[in-house]
From TrEMBL:
Its cofactor is Zn(2+); Mn(2+); Fe(2+). One of its GO terms (biological process) is negative regulation of DNA-templated transcription. Fe cation binds at H87, H125. GO terms for molecular function: DNA-binding transcription factor activity; transcription cis-regulatory region binding; zinc ion binding. Binds 1 zinc ion per subunit. Binds 1 Mn(2+) or Fe(2+) ion per subunit. Keywords: Cytoplasm, DNA-binding, Iron, Metal-binding, Repressor, Transcription, Transcription regulation, Zinc. Its main location: cytoplasm. GO terms for cellular component: cytoplasm. This is Fur family transcriptional regulator, zinc uptake regulator.
Length: 140
């Protein structure tokens, strides 16, 4: 949590009570919380905070690269995670929204080199696989 606050300060952003509460919620709400779940948690600390404030702060953290927004295509909306590793991808169930980290990168350096052959300089990439988790696949 303190690392996120340090990054914000280093980039010239103030640490408002709402921003601190969003960061606390990201750390306390378990893996892959939705914006709604974060808002619910923050309102226990700061009852008058708006959902827009939560989403603006999440968007800032995503823009700074210290939080990832994972597009779940689910009923409850996208989920968020603090960026703790250099690089990883996700498996996302289109039925229940379960999200899992993929602990390897299926994109080879050769594939990246081919993509850069036309002069485009790749600085990062993200990949999300959509399908059905074990429980949803066996239920259908």
């Amino acid at each position: 949590m303190e690392q996120l606050i340090r990054v914000l300060r280093d980039k010239g952003f103030k640490i408002t009570p709402q921003r601190r509460a969003v960061i606390t919620a990201l750390a306390k709400c378990g893996k892959f919380p939705t914006a709604q779940r974060i808002w619910d948690y923050v309102r226990t600390i700061t009852p008058d905070v708006s959902f827009d404030t939560i989403y603006r702060n999440l968007s800032l953290l995503v823009e700074l690269g210290i939080v990832s927004e994972i597009h779940t295509k689910g009923r409850e909306g996208n989920v968020f995670e603090i960026v703790e590793t250099d690089h990883h991808h996700h498996l996302i169930c289109v039925s229940c929204g379960t999200t899992q980290c993929l602990d390897f990168c299926p994109v080879s350096h050769g594939d990246l080199a081919k993509a850069e052959a036309g002069g485009f300089k790749i600085t990062s990439h993200s990949l999300e696989f959509y399908g059905y988790c074990r429980e949803c696949a066996s239920a259908g």
